[in-house]
Amino acid sequence: MDESQDRRIHTVNLPETMRKSFLDYAMSVIVARALPDVRDGLKPVHRRILYGMNELGVTPDKPYKKSARIVGDVMGKYHPHGDSAIYESMVRMAQDFSYRYPLVDGHGNFGSVDGDGAAAMRYTEARLSKIATEMLRDINKDTIDFQDNYDGTEREPVVLPSRIPNLLINGATGIAVGMTTNIPPHNLGEVISALHILMRNPDATTADLMEALPGPDFPTGGVVMGKSGIRRAYETGRGNIILRAKVEVQTEKSGKERIIVHEIPYMVNKAKLVERIAELARDHRVDGITTLQDESDREGMRITIDIRRDTSATVVLNNLYKLTPLQTNFSFNMVAIVDGAPKVLTLKQILVYYLKHQEDVITRRTRFDLRKAEARAHILAGLRTALDHVDAIVSLLRSAPNGDVAKAQLIDQFDLDDKQAQAILDMRMVRLTGLERDKIDSEFNDLQAAIADYKDILAKPERIHEIIYQELLDIQKRYGDKRRTELLVGEVLSIEDEDLIEQEDVVLTLSHNGYIKRLPASEFKVQNRGGRGIQGMGVHDDDFIEHLISSSTHDVLLFFTNQGKVYRAKGYEIPEYSRMAKGIPIINLLGIDSGEQIQTVINVAENDAAEHYLFFITRDGTVKRTSVREFANIRSNGLKAINLHDGDELNNVLLTDGHQNIIIGTHDGYSVSFSETAVRNMGRAASGVRGVRLRADDYVIGSDILKPNAEVMVISEKGYGKRTPTSEYPIKGRGGKGIKTVNVTKKNGPLAGLTVVDGSEDMLLITNTGVLIRFAVTDVSQTGRAAMGVRVIRLDDDASVASLAKVAPEEDDGDDGSDATAPDGGGDTAPAGPAAAGSDAGDTVSTDTPAAPSADADAPQEGANLSKSQSNALDELLNRATEDQDKAEHDDSDDSHHDNDQE
User: Fold this and answer.
1) Nearest in space to 181 (alpha carbons), one of 231, 144, 146, 233
2) Quick check: 560 and 815 in contact, CB under 8 A?
3) With bands split at pLDDT 50, 70 and 90, how would you rate the model's confidence at 492?
4) Is the dihedral of CA 637, 643, 649, 652 positive or negative?
5) Which residue has the higher pLDDT, 608 or 255?
6) How close are the terminal C-alpha atoms of the chain, in Å?
7) pLDDT classification of 2: cutoffs 50, 70, 90
8) Which segments carry the region annotation Disordered (predicted)?
9) How crowded is the C-beta side of 17, counted as CA atoms within 13 Å?
10) Which residues are registered as beta bridge partners of 263?
11) What contacts 844, CB < 8 A, 6 or more positions away?
C-alpha cells in the first residue's frame, strides 16, 4: 500500500462509530421525516408539498395542475426522496376519509374508502384547498424562518405560519426510530373554542378544555365509547379509546332484524370489512347472517346485514364488534417535534405551543407591516416635499446635465435621502396635479395612523392575543362544521366473550374416555321412569358417558380432576355437537396432564367468589373446605386444588356458603352427614381431614348438600332408585362410619350415585353404554332409608348406571315426547318411614316387599321439547333455604373428628 492510499484510511473505534452513525440516522428520521412539528402539524414532506404548490401558483382560484408536475417540482427543489413517496403523501392530503380537513383539492381518482389506490400521477390533477391557504397565509411577511434546501439552490420554510391548528384538526401518524406518533383528528370549531378558553384563562384545566373539545372527530364518523380514555390521553399524551361503527338495527314486520352500517371507524377499509363479515358468516364463526350487501353510493355509506329470524341481532353485532373492524382501538400517542426534539404532549401543551407560534407569527407580521409602512411613509414624505417645491425641483431637473447630478442636487438642496430623491426622479408628471397631491396626503396620513397602531400592538401583548382571538374566530366562522363522530357519555364495558354468545341453557356430557361436547338442553324430553331412554351420545364399545352437567353458555365451569387439579372454562367454550357425535377430546380443550380424568364439573359465579366455598370429598373419605377466592386465577395448565395422599383421588367438589350440612354416600350403601363447619377453612394446598370412616373395600360414590325439607335420592348401578326425606339422615360428627341409606342386593346392585332433591326436579341418568333417560323426580316413590327402591331405567345385562344429574322441570307442550318403551309399572320398594325401632343407628332393618305401582306407572308420560332449559344443580343449591340445619345432634360416639388436620 503506497503512502497516498494510506493517508485516505482512518482507524476508528467501530462501536463508537456505529453508535454515532445510528444516532445521527435516528435523529434524521425523527426530526426530518417521521414526526410532525407541533407548530404547524406537518411533516417535512407535507410542508414541502404545500409550499411547492403555493410557489407553483396552484391556489384555489387557479386551474388544477397535473400531479406529476407538482410532484416533480417538489422533488426537484425540496424533497429528494422519490416521486412515489411525495405523490402518496399528496394523495392522502386530498382524501376526505383520511384528513378531517383536506389540504389538497384533488381532481380525478384519488382512491376510496374501499382501499382503491389513486390513479397514476400523470392522470390526476390537484391544487391547494381553501383551508390550506390558511396554512400559508402571511408566509411572505417574514412570519417564519427559511432555510437552504438539500443542495443550497433554493430556500424552503422551516415551518408554515399555519393560521389553523392543523396538528389537532387533521391529526398525525408516523413511525420513527424508537418512537411513534398517533394523534387523532378533531373538529376545527371545537379546537378553536378550546383555544379561546385557554386564552381567556391560561390556568384552564383539561376538564375546562374538554368542555369545548370533548374528544376526537374522525372524518369517517363512528362512535367513541366512553370518555375516560380521552381524558387520560389529553392529560398524559397517551391513552386508548374504543371506536365503533355507527349502526342501526331495524325490525321488519316479519320479525326479522337487519343491521345497517352507516359509518365505519377511522382508517378501516370498507371492502375488507365487508369481505371479513362474509368470511365469518361463510365459516359459521358468526351464525345468523343470511344476506350481506354493500349498498353504498354517492349519497353515503350503507352496509346491510340481514339476520335470521331465530337469531338475536345484538349477539350478531357483538360478534362483529369482536371479530371485525366494526370496532377498533385507537391509541393516543401525542408525540411531536418541539424545539427540534421529540416530546410527548398533553392537550393543553399542544394548544399552548400553537398559541406561542401564533404570537410569534403575529409579532413578526406586525413588525414586517411596520417596516413596510414606515418605508412607504418615508417615500411619501419625500414626494410631499417635492410637491411643496415643485417649481424649484422642475427648474433643478431642467438644468441638471444628468440623473445622477439631479439626484445629488435634490439630496443637497431639499434634505432628502437617496431613496426619496430616486422616488422624485421616478415620479410621473401627472402626480403633480392637485388631485394626486390629495391622494398622497391621504395615504401618508393613513400610514402614520397604521404605524402608530403597529407600534402599539408590539408594545402590548394583550393586543396580539386579541388579534389571534379574532382571527381564529373568523376562521371558525368560515370553516367550522358539525361534529361527525358521536361521543357516548359514561363508560361502556368492553365486549366480553359472553356478549358474543347468546345465553342458552345447555347440557354438557363428558365420556369415560375424555370426550366432551355441548348440547342444547331442549333436546332432552321428559319420560316416565322405566323408559328405555334416548341415545345421548355416540360412543364406542369401550367408552361411555361418565359426567352430565346442566349448565349455561355463560356459566363459569371448574373442572376438577381425579388427581386434585382444577381447570377453568366458560360454557360457550365447550364445542356444540349433535347428540350422536363423539365430541372433542377434553385434553385438547383444557390441556390436562396424561393420566388425569375429569372427576367433577361445577359452575361458579365469579361475583360470588368472596362468600362461597368449595367442599372437597375424596374417594377415601377425606374432606376439605376452601374459599372460592383461592381459585380466582387459574392458569391455562391448571392449578392444584387439593393435596392428595398416595392412592387417593378426588371424588366430588361442592359449592357451599360456608354453613351447609354435607351428606356423603358410599358404594356399599352407607352415608354420613355432618355440618361443613366441622371442617375449618383450609388453604388450597391442604390435604384435608377425615370425613367418613370407610369399611373394607368401600369407597365414596357421591355427596351433596343436605337441605331441610328435601329428599335424598340414590340410584343403584342396576337402575334402581328411591328418594328419602332428609330428616331421616341425622347430622353427626364427621369421620363416622355412617348409616345404611339403601338395602344393597344382587337385584339392585351397589350405589352408583347420591344426590339431594326437593321434588321439583327432573333427573337425567346415563349408562355406561351411552343411553340417557330423563324422568321427573316425583315419578320415583318416597321410601325409607333402608329400602331397595324402584326401577328407573331398564338395562341390558352388560349395562349399568354410570352418572346422574339434576335438571329443572319443564312444562308439557302437548307433543308426544316418548322416545322409548313404556315403563314396567313398578319396582321393588321398602316401607316408607324411618328404620324399625330398636335397630342400630348404623344398620337399618330392610324388607323386600314389593310396593304398589304409582298411578301413572302403566302408561307412558307425554314429554315435550320445551323452550326454557334447565338450571344447573349448583344454582339450585345456592337458592334453597338453609334453615334448621343445626337441629340434628352430633354423634359423640365418633371420635374421628378429633383427627389432626393434614395440611
Assistant:
1) 233
2) no
3) low
4) negative
5) 255
6) 82
7) low
8) 806-903
9) 5
10) 246
11) 739, 740, 743, 784, 785, 786, 835, 836
123 is catalytic: yes
Distance CA 899, CA 295 (A): 76
Sequence length of the chain is 903
* pLDDT at site 534: 53
Distances (CA, A) of 160 to 49, 562, 791: 12, 73, 92
Instruction: Report which residue type is found at 728.
Output: E
Q: What are phi and psi of 145, to 5 degrees?
A: -90, 150
CA–CA separation, 526 and 533 (whole Å): 10
SS (H, E, C) 503-549: CCEEEEEEECCCEEEEEEHHHCCCCCCCCCCEECCCCCCCCCEEEEE
The C-alpha cell of 761 is what? 326436579
Quote the CA–CA distance of 869 and 325 in Å, as a whole number.
35
Looking up cell 397535473 gives: 66
Q: Is the dihedral of CA 432, 435, 439, 442 positive or negative?
A: positive
Q: What does the DSSP 8-state code read for residue 31?
A: I
Most confident residue range from 56-65, 574-583, 708-717 = 56-65
Residues 6+ apart with CB under 8 A from 507: 518, 519, 520, 521, 523, 524, 548, 549, 550, 551, 764, 807, 870
Q: Which domains does the chain have, with CATH numbers?
A: 42-161 (3.90.199.10), 246-325 (3.30.1360.40), 353-479 (1.10.268.10), 503-897 (2.120.10.90)
- How many Å separate Cα 614 from the centre of its chain? 32
* pLDDT tens-digit series, residues 343-357: 999 999 999 999 999
Q: Say how far apart CA 535 and CA 772 lie, in whole Å.
A: 6
In degrees, rounded to 5, the angle at the alpha carbon of residue 698 between the alpha carbons of residues 697 and 703 is: 160
pLDDT digits (tens, 9 = 90+) for 161-183: 999 999 999 999 988 887 889 99
Model pLDDT for residues 621-674, shown as the tens digit of each residue: 999 999 888 887 888 778 889 999 888 999 899 989 888 999 999 999 999 999
- C-alpha of 602 from chain center: 29
Report the phi/psi class of residue 603: left, alpha or beta, with left for phi > 0 and alpha for psi in -120 to 50. Answer: beta
pLDDT confidence of residue 833:
31
Q: What are phi and psi of 251, to 5 degrees?
A: -110, 120
More confident residue, 12 or 117: 117
Q: Which three cell numbers stand for residue 456?
A: 402599539
Mean pLDDT of 678-694: 91
List phi, psi (to 5°) of 643. Answer: -90, 110
pLDDT digits (tens, 9 = 90+) for 835-858: 332 333 333 323 233 333 333 333
Q: At residue 61, does pLDDT exceed 60?
A: yes
The number of angstroms, rounded, from the C-alpha of 629 to the middle of its chain's C-alpha atoms is: 26
Rg of the Cα atoms in the chain: 44
Q: How confident is the model at residue 818 (pLDDT cuts 50, 70, 90)?
A: very low
Number of separate helices (H) and strands (E) present in the chain = 20, 41
Q: Which one is catalytic: 51, 87, 99, 123?
A: 123
Q: Amino acid identity of 608?
A: D
Q: Is 395 exposed, middle or buried (0-12, 13-18, 19+ CB in 10 A)?
A: exposed
Of 74-78, 101-105, 324-328, 882-886, give the lowest mean pLDDT range: 882-886
Candidates 726, 706, 872, 868; CA nearest to 805 is 872
Count CB atoms within 10 A of the CB of residue 169.
Answer: 22
Q: Which residue in the block uniquely carries the three cell numbers 338453609? A: 882
Q: What is the pLDDT of residue 544?
A: 62
C-beta of residue 737 within 8 angstroms of C-beta of residue 842: yes
Tell which residue, 29, 330, 35, 27, has the closest CA to residue 167: 35
Q: For 774-817, what is each residue's pLDDT tens digit? A: 888 888 888 888 788 888 888 888 888 887 777 666 555 444 43
DSSP letter for each residue of 701-718: EEEEEE-TT-EEEEEETT
